[in-house]
Each structure stands twice: as structure tokens, then as C-alpha cells.
Amino acid sequence: MKAFIFPGQGSQSVGMGKALADAFPAARAVFDEVDEALGEKLSELIWNGPIEELTLTANAQPALMATSLAALRALESQGVKVTDAAYVAGHSLGEYSALAAVGTLSIGDTARLLRRRGRAMQEAVPVGVGAMAALLGMDFATATSVAADAAQGDVCQAANDNDPSQVVISGHKAAVERAVALAKERGGKRAMLLPVSAPFHCALMQPAADAMADALAQVTFRAPVVPVVTNVRAAAVTDPEQLRQLLVEQVTGSVRWRESVLWMAGQGVTEFWEIGAGKALSGMVKRIAKESQQRNFGLPEDVAALAG
Fold first, then answer.
1. Where exactly are the structural domains of the chain?
2. pLDDT value of residue 249
3. In whole angstroms, what is the distance from residue 137 CA to residue 140 CA?
4. In 3-state terms, what secondary structure has residue 165?
5. Using the 8-state DSSP alphabet, how is residue 281 labeled?
6. For position 195, what pLDDT does the model report?
7. CATH for 2-124+204-307?
8. Phi, psi angle pair for 110, to nearest 5°
9. Which of 103, 116, 277, 300 has the most C-beta neighbours closer than 10 Å?
């Protein structure tokens, strides 16, 4: 049994998806559709940079979605169907890619929503007020306890439960810095601040959640052709209105990736296909569901290998 999984922010690189667009007309059509939806040549930025501009949240989010959907269209041109997967899931913004993949959202709507989401998340907290940090060698329960003890009246919470030994925390900068020091005292292998522009997936993102509630209310949601394992629930959801609401909750809620992968493995998933840029999720999956197989599809040769 397979699951298709879609990467989140941090996987972006200049040139991603270009070889797919050159090799598969269906992949190029995705980039064209995203460009048209946004009213600008985002594809030029994706393929030519500069990386500093591509990494801006409002650009990186629709760019990564475009690359994932281009890779999926390339696979479809070779006979793979999204319904070959028992489940789909995505990490943070990757959940939007998953929803576009299963027909809940159109690609154009997804691109516009992600542009809005990126801007709203960036604008929610003034630069320098918030921070995020990775706590390595520490399980989710311990990391949650560290974040709570470091808060001291500020916001500090577990944002991403990525795998058994990597939890990302988010909140006010001073509180996150206290958590980094505390994590080392409590046996964490390593704790480090991350080079991010805003404190994602914590209560400080409430203004962005409000903005997304308004934006999502304007968009048509259809029933997914494959169940979506959502970040907030860490279980499969098929009701379109629930999926809409969970995208709002996701802005301030934890990304329960470890639990999501364990849930899928518990349902019988043995193969996880990472569709889009990079291999970050495959590494996490390998550490979570050790018996599972991982495959990556971000280049023409990855797609060609299916026929081999």
C-alpha cells in the first residue's frame, strides 16, 4: 500500500522542476497555470533565482506546490494515478499540494491561497519578535515540556513533530532562546535556532489564521478522491468542510508529522512516495516507519525509473 507525500518549506532550490517541465508537457502546464493564477512569472524565479527571493515565504509556498504538482503530472503521464495511493499527506504547506493533488482544490486556487498564506504568516509577527528552533535528540513529550517551562508568560510551543528525534519549537524569540538552553540541560543532543523569517505554527500566527479563514471561505472545496491525512488530526479526513477548517487550524497548530506517518503505517502503508522538491520527508519517514520503503519523484530520471 502506498501513500503520496508532499514536502513543505525549506525544500526549495533554484531550478527545481525545470527538468520536469522540459521533459513533460503536462508538468510545464502546471507552472503555466500557477503563473497565470498569480499574474506573474513565478516560474522564472523558481528556475533562475535569486534564491533569496525564492526563499521568501510568499514565493516559496506556491513554488513548492507548483513543483510537486508538476512532478505528479509527470507521473500521471506515465500511467501513475493519484488513486494508486491509499492516502495523501503534506508537511505544512505540503498539505495544500496534497489537496490539489486529490482534486479538493484547483491548482489556481491553491497558488493564490498559498501566496496569501505566505504573506499573512510573514505579516503576523514583526521581524525579530519571534523565532523557531530545532531540538534534536529529544522526543515530542520532552520537547513540549521544555517549551512550556521556557515560556514564562511568552508564547513557546512545539510547532513540528517531525520524527522521533527532531521537534521544532516556535514562539517569542526570548522564550525560544530559553528553550534552547533548557533543552541542552535536559539531555537534548543539540538545539539550534533556525534561519526562518517568522514563528510558524504557534499562537503568534493567529492573525494569519484569521486571514486564511477569510481566504479559504471564498474557495470551492470538493471531496478528495483519496483520503487526506491532515497535520492537525494525524488521521484521514475526507469531508471537504472539515478539510477547509483544518487548514485554518493548521496555521497555529502543530504539524503532527511523526504521528501522521505512524498512523498511515498502522493502516498498512509500506511505501511512501515523496513527490516534489528535495528528500527531507523521506528521511523523516525512514526514522519513523523503519520498515517502510521511500521513493522520491522530483526529476525526470525518477519518473523514468518507474518504467525500468
1. 2-124+204-307, 130-196
2. 98
3. 10
4. coil
5. H
6. 85
7. 3.40.366.10
8. -65, -45
9. 277
| Of residues 163, 128, 127, 123, the one with CA closest to residue 143 | 163
pLDDT of res. 197 = 82
Q: Are 82 and 225 in contact (CB under 8 A)?
A: yes
* Same topology between domain 2-124+204-307 and domain 130-196: no
pTM tops 0.90: yes
Per-residue cell: 176: 525560544
Residues known to be catalytic = 92, 201
- End-to-end CA, the chain: 20
pLDDT of residue 308: 60
Contacts for 148 with CB less than 8 Å, ≥ 6 apart: 156, 157
CATH fold group of domain 130-196: Alpha-Beta Plaits (3.30.70)
* 137 grid coordinates: 535528540
Q: Which residues of the chain have pLDDT under 70?
A: 308
Mapping DSSP onto H, E and C, the string for 171-234 reads: EEHHHHHHHHHHHHHCCCCEEEECCCCCCCCCHHHHHHHHHHHHHHHCCCCCCCCCCEECCCCC
> Length of the chain, please?
308
CA gyration radius, the chain: 18
